[in-house]
Design brief:
This protein has 504 residues and is mainly alpha-helical. It has a two-stranded parallel sheet with strand order 1-2. A two-stranded antiparallel ribbon has the order 3-5. Helix 2 runs parallel beside helix 4, helix 3 runs antiparallel to helix 4 and helix 6 packs antiparallel against helix 7. The longest helix is centred in the first third of the chain and has 22 residues.
Length: 504
């Protein structure tokens, strides 16, 4: 019998390179509370690994952000299988760790930890469902090498089951959470389950009865916001300041220690090795080259390891010219005049703390990462979920308008509780209201891990994407052999498909 006292040891024991690979038989005893806590804490490191510098490759068909593997050729596909396998592996490492630890915890003595484990497993499967469509459903420590491929509905039913278990075991509110402001409680679980129901009501299941459930749960979160310590920050810029890394708007996020001296802990959305600038032709010339099928740049001083994320041009121009845009985009930036700066600077900007930059000027104007909280779910999203779900459930009332108007007021740096000229007109049809809310989500959550791409999937917008782009915004196309028949979803890694023919 071997005692495991840290998450690192546990991961070495039961993490697998492939879900269906045989593992050596091992035994462990976890008999101290701190050991259990250490293991649960360690699970969050796997979510950090999921949301690494390559994460946005999974969303590269979206209209708000694109991913350029090489600026000169811009359409290289070689890294897609590796990136998707890494996301898949880390999510299943989390799931397998949860499956191994759950039976060792008591429903009474360890209830908060059990709730946290169910919550994390549900989140992992929710991510898998929206990236892979029909992922293997593994709920115990024994691996079934011929597990059947589930239906879309079965996947969401498992997520729902885990979320209901989380609601049963998690602490009631912010003050009772295991780590106040960081670990989930019932309010966080309700907000996440509302997101699950919102997705469930859309593509590919289209069970529209779930809109009412999404509205009910997000509405409860809003009504009990004070008890849950939830709310919008008055200044949206504060979300990306290290001194506000713990704040009321964060419902579920990943945290990085701002006191560490080594910057390697920073959350990095842009990864590059040794290059100092990117050379682009003027915008009209870029358009001509793309239309002719030529490389984007004629004088690219490239590095073969270049990875670059950029928002697309039309998304930038359609983004409302308000305070929120000032916070999300560098000032005085016009891609028509300086496409070089646009490409290089744009994705850093939202995720850097301008105050922190002043404190450490030696890192330059665009440091390689950020110590701010990585938001996986924040209160603004819950407000917009409530507004949309209520309208789709046939209850477009004052509360739905107020939810989205609070976000719009804050975007214009106004008091969020006072009516303003930026509020939605009261005479909108349901379709007009929904269109306004969906675009508000796109702008509010742009460049964030739970942002625009997942809305494109659930709303089945792939056929409308050409309308959302300029000709310069040629999307990164994913080769068919990497995708399932539904186009929105990636195939599970090839190694696992070989082992289990049910997932071919």
């Amino acid at each position: 019998m071997k005692k495991i006292i840290s998450i690192i040891s546990l991961l070495l024991l039961i993490s697998c390179n492939s879900l269906f690979h045989e593992e050596d038989n091992q035994y462990m005893v976890i008999d101290k509370q701190q050991e259990k806590v250490d293991i649960v804490n360690g699970l969050y490191s796997l979510l950090v690994k999921v949301h690494n510098q390559d994460y946005f490759q999974a969303m590269l068909r979206s209209d708000d952000v694109n991913y350029y593997f090489y600026v000169a050729s811009s359409r290289d596909q070689t890294n897609i299988p590796v990136v998707m396998a890494t996301i898949y592996k880390n999510l299943y490492s989390l799931i397998i760790n949860v499956n191994s630890l759950l039976p060792k915890l008591s429903d009474t003595d360890d209830a908060p930890l059990k709730g946290e484990l169910y919550f994390l497993r549900a989140y992992a499967y929710f991510k898998l469902a929206r990236l892979y469509g029909k992922p293997p459903l593994v709920t115990d420590a024994d691996v079934n090498f011929l597990i059947e491929k589930p239906s879309f509905t079965q996947v969401y039913e498992l997520i729902e089951q885990d979320m209901l278990k989380a609601l049963e075991f998690l602490p009631d509110n912010y003050l009772k959470a295991r780590i106040a402001g960081e670990t989930p409680h019932k309010g966080v679980a309700k907000a996440l389950l509302a997101e699950v129901y919102l997705a469930w009501a859309g593509f590919p299941i289209n069970d529209q009865s779930k809109y009412a459930e999404a509205a009910r749960l997000s509405g409860e979160v809003i009504q009990q916001a004070d008890d849950y310590n939830f709310g919008l920050l008055d200044d949206i810029a504060d979300l990306w300041r290290v001194r506000y890394r713990h704040n009321q708007e964060n419902l579920f996020g990943l945290f990085f220690d701002p006191e560490k001296k080594n910057i390697s802990y920073y959350y990095t959305l842009d990864h590059n090795t040794g290059f100092t600038s990117i050379y682009l032709d003027p915008l009209p010339e870029i358009t001509n080259r793309l239309n002719a099928g030529a490389p984007i740049s004629s004088d690219y001083q490239g590095n073969p390891n270049l990875v670059q994320y950029v928002p697309e041009f039309k998304f930038y121009y359609n983004f409302p010219l308000n305070y929120r845009k000032q916070c999300f985009y560098p000032p005085n930036l016009d891609p028509l005049k300086n496409s070089n700066d646009y490409l290089y600077k744009i994705f850093y900007y939202k995720w850097q703390d301008r105050d922190y930059k002043k404190k450490f000027p030696q890192w330059g104007p665009y440091p390689e990462g950020s110590a701010v909280t990585l938001y996986l779910l924040r209160y603004a999203q819950t407000l917009l979920t409530y507004a949309e779900a209520s309208a789709r459930a046939g209850k477009l009332d004052e509360s739905a308008y107020e939810a989205v108007n609070r976000v719009r007021r804050r975007a214009n740096k106004l008091d969020i509780y006072s009516p303003s000229k930026f509020d939605l007109a009261k005479n909108l049809s349901t379709e007009q209201f929904l269109d306004a809310v969906v675009w508000e989500r796109a702008w509010e959550l742009s460049f964030e891990p739970e942002g625009r791409w997942f809305d494109i999937v659930r709303l089945n917008l792939k056929d409308k994407l050409p309308e959302y782009r300029f000709s310069i915004d040629v999307p990164n196309q994913v080769l068919p052999q990497y995708l399932t028949e539904e186009w929105y979803f990636f195939k599970i890694p090839e190694q696992d498909r070989i082992i289990n023919p049910n997932f071919q």
